[in-house]
Amino acid sequence: MRLGILDHGYGLGPKLLFQLIRLFSGHPAPDAAKITFYRPDFYGTRMKAFTQEAMRGPSAWSVGDRELMAAYVSRVNECPFCVAAHSTTAARAYQDERKVAAVLADLDSAPLPDGLRATMRMLGKLTAEGAVTAEDMRVVLSTGVSVQQIEDSLAVCFAFNTTDRLANAFGFELLSPEAFQAGAKYLLRRGYQ
Prior knowledge:
Helix content: over 70%
Number of strands: 0
Order of helices and strands: HHHHHHHHHH
CATH topology: AhpD-like
Radius of gyration: 17 Å
CATH architecture: Up-down Bundle
Largest sheet: none
Number of domains: 1
Low-confidence stretches: none
Structural class: mainly alpha
Shape: globular
């Protein structure tokens, strides 16, 4: 059930911004953007900064890798909006739609380096079960993934477990394929600011 708060309750500034987004992109502002302007003091400002750091801050993981992690966590959470948004962005970052589709279809047989596969498996377990073990971490480390890379992937996991739950609770509307492509171009150019 879609909560109507995403369509109302904004001041003049956000309303004008949403109109500008529609004017320049040819697509309505996505609900993911709208929610950051609803109670920005409580959620939006802090979450945008955290997500920007997790997704575009310094990391040994590429932007494509982190977008793929976001899409995978979103698939585990059964969040259609975020799966579409971040699989589109990952495919654009990698310039490889097949790779992204293969990961989302079957992580074990997808063409990934062992470290990324082990990390994604750990993120999937954390998302589905709410916990991982020391042994899970040892498995990831044994593939050559660094402690910093694990921390970076956990930041992505946190950001998208939070966003996925909001997207599902608020009933984020799915966009057209063209709008998801426009959003992916924006995210790759500007990030999450």
